[in-house]
Amino acid sequence: MTHSQANEGPATQPALQTVTADQSEDCLEALAIARSRDAAANGLKSPFSLLNWNVEKAQHPKLITAFAEFASSSDLIFLQEAVPLKKNQTVVEQSLYEAFVRGYVQNQIETGVLTLARVPHLVHCNITATEPWLRTPKATSVTLYPLHKSSNTLLAINLHGVNFSLGIETYSAQLEAIATLIRPHPGPVILGGDFNTWSERRLRAVERLTVELQLTPVPFSPDHRTTAFGNPLDHLYVRGLTWRSTEARPVSTSDHNPLFATLERTGP
């Protein structure tokens, strides 16, 4: 477990202590320590806007422009198949704090999961699983944020689910590593991302877990989420939060459609 300052973000904002952990056991400890600290003054306000999007390695020539527009009205952003923020000056100008977890690397270009927020995170954990067939990493970014005028904190988990596997053993293990972090958390939780739920068995595994953890699925109507074999791949689940509005917007700039939600706290 390593300790560093949250120095990715607007230079005019005070940096908070950040802990980066590579394993779920280390992450549990880091989260517990951060929750025991005094509440930060510059926390995430309620309601807040959330964007979740698999950006397909930012390959489309118009994706950066589209994302910059989406980011301008978002307080919290979950990206999958993302490139590091430092490579995108347009997004840097949005004054967002980044938490990147490296996943797949091809032709010296690294992609992974990227969580962005208007406020600095207290903790950032890097959790990875290995694709059984390709032996490449699938990344999960775990971040903890202070909440405005609250002693609670928000646990935000940005997942890119294991994809190529015959059974669901590796997939279930990836979900359980996340569940280990959610179970003891007393405050609001967001679990979102590209879950790769292209089979009924995968969907049932996610449903069992979210029911156990008392996470509520965020609905989208009309539901324009990207599907495979008739099943939606991208999901948002919340606890201690409710939604004012949601949208799954059809786009041509990625092979996944972005999800938008305006969320607010249901407790202190």
Q: Any chance you could write out the topology, listing elements then pairs?
A:
Elements: E1 2-5, E2 17-21, H1 24-35, E3 48-54, H2 63-71, E4 76-82, H3 89-92, E5 97-106, E6 109-117, E7 123-130, E8 137-146, E9 153-160, H4 169-182, E10 189-194, H5 200-212, E11 216-217, E12 227-228, E13 231-232, E14 234-239, E15 241-248, E16 259-265
Parallel strand pairs: 2-7, 3-4, 9-10
Antiparallel strand pairs: 1-2, 3-16, 4-6, 5-6, 7-8, 8-9, 10-14, 11-14, 12-13, 15-16
What does this structure look like?
- The chain has one domain (49-265): Deoxyribonuclease I, Chain A (4-Layer Sandwich).
- α1 packs parallel to α4 and α4 packs parallel to α5 (200-212).
- The strands form three sheets. Strands 1-2-7-8-9-10-14-11 form an eight-stranded mixed sheet, with helices on one face. A six-stranded mixed sheet has the order 5-6-4-3-16-15, with no helix packed on it. The protein has a two-stranded antiparallel ribbon with strand order 12-13.
- The chain has helices at residues 24-35, 63-71, 89-92, 169-182, 200-212; strands at residues 2-5, 17-21, 48-54, 76-82, 97-106, 109-117, 123-130, 137-146, 153-160, 189-194, 216-217, 227-228, 231-232, 234-239, 241-248, 259-265.
- The protein is of the alpha+beta class and 268 residues long.
- Mean pLDDT is 85; it is low at 1-17.
- β9, α4 and β10 (189-194) form a beta-alpha-beta unit.
Write out key terms for the chains shown.
268 residues, 38% strand, 5 helices, disordered N terminus, 8-stranded mixed beta sheet, Deoxyribonuclease I, Chain A, globular, alpha+beta
